[in-house]
Every structure is written in structure tokens, then in C-alpha cells.
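Working notes for the structural subgroup meeting. M.R. asked for a predicted model of this chain before we commit to crystallization trials. I am recording the input and output together here so anyone reviewing the notebook later can reproduce the run.

Input as submitted:
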Amino acid sequence: MKPHNHTDYQKRFFKEVKKQFPFYGKREKEYLKQFQTEIDAYLEEFPDSSYEAMLEAIGTPKDVVENYFQNVEDRYQLSHIKKSNYIRIGIITIIGIFLIFTIYQGVLVYKSYLDSKDTLIIHESTEIFEDSAPYGGNETK
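Returned structure, recorded in C-alpha cell form:
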């Protein structure tokens, strides 16, 4: 059997693990660096193993993340959750302000359109009266 490319296994595994983390900071990176040694040791011991066999031996990405959160401090988790909530509220506020500003600009443009529509001369009518007197004047004799 042809040996598999171990770096492909590691990249695939860590990509899947990163997707499982609700946030990915400095501590999570350090944890994954430590976990990488376990993967390296497994792949050195079993170079011909498949990716699925490696997952059975060391755990799935979901298992790795669950294990991490079982061992991490609650205060750390809560602070990250609060930060992500603040960021979410900030982004929603910015989007709301932008939306209100855009609607306001649209209303101003529409009012300007209506004003300009009222000032435009669309058609002009001219009435011509026939009168025997020149220039429409009354001649007195």
C-alpha cells in the first residue's frame, strides 16, 4: 500500500477542527499545536493508515473541540462569548444605521424628483384671438 501524504491529513483535520470552534483565538491555536504532536506520533506509528482510521484512533474534530471546552476555564469561555455578542450587536447597529441613512437618502431623492417634476414645463398652450383691432386694443373714434 502506498503511504499517504500526512500533511494532507493534518490540513484536513485542522480545517475541520477550526470549523467546529465557535471562536478561534490564541489559546485555541496553542491547544491545536499541542494536539498536532499526537497526530504526528500516530502518523509515524501507522504511516499507511487512512484518514478515517486516524479519526477513530485520535478522535473526530468534534471530539477534539468538546474535549478542549471540557478542560478550559469557564471565565475564558464567557469572556469570548461576551466579546462575540458585543461584536454581533455592533455589526447589527452599524447595518441598522446604514439602512436608515440609505432610506433617508432615498426619501430625499424622491422628494427632489417630485419638486423638479412640478417645476418642469411639460406643455405650453398658446391662445390666439382674432380681433379686428391691431394688437388687441380697442379703437375709439
